Amino acid sequence: MTKTWPLLLALATAAPTLPAVAQELPTQVRRTPLPSKHPLVGAWRIDVPGTACHEVYDIHADGSMSVTSGEQSAESEFEIDLEPSPRGFYRWVDKLVKDNGRPDCTGQVTEVGHIAVNFIIIHRSGREFLMCEDESLNSCIGPFKRLSEDT
């Protein structure tokens, strides 16, 4: 975790601890159109630790996303909260709808139809975010860094 994240850590850990509840993965994803000024709309890059590889997530306001990772080129649809939770996280459900069948930065090939549920917390600068398994900073990847101011 970088030094730019202490406030997020404090925010995420200050909220009362919720009991762990087993979640079933959704079988459908209803695309969430986002306002053009939503803080996630735009292109984001993450350098994959332990590799010379990076991923680029291009998040579109129509509720779709394009991803490149290693040799992989993929498209997905997502539903996401329009506002963060009291802990500061956006719940993000993402379904892969198109993939070129090539390996990503970790050597994995993800099947079309795969659904993932993650929680996004955006740094107050709006220039970085973390992707977490739940509404805590205990199991996150990132930071994803915004590629341009034009989005």
User: What are the segments in which pLDDT stays under 50 over at least 5 consecutive residues?
Assistant: 1-22
Measure the end-to-end span. Answer: 25 Å
Determine the structural class based on helices, strands and strand pairing: mainly beta
Number of helices: 1
Shape: globular
Can you list the strand order of the major beta sheet? 1-2-3-4-5-6-7-8
Query: How much of the residues is beta strand, in percent?
Result: 35-45%
Biggest sheet overview: 8 strands, antiparallel, barrel
The sequence of SSEs as H and E is HEEEEEEEE
Helix content: under 10%
CA gyration radius, whole angstroms: 15 Å
Can you characterise this structure?
The chain contains one helix and eight strands. It has one helix at about 5-15; strands spanning about 40-45, 55-60, 65-70, 70-80, 90-100, 115-120, 130, 140-145. It has an eight-stranded antiparallel beta barrel. The longest helix has 9 residues, at about 5-15.
Defining traits:
mainly beta, eight-stranded antiparallel β-barrel
Chain-wise SSE layout:
Layout: H1 6-14, E1 42-47, E2 54-59, E3 64-69, E4 72-80, E5 89-99, E6 115-122, E7 128-132, E8 140-146
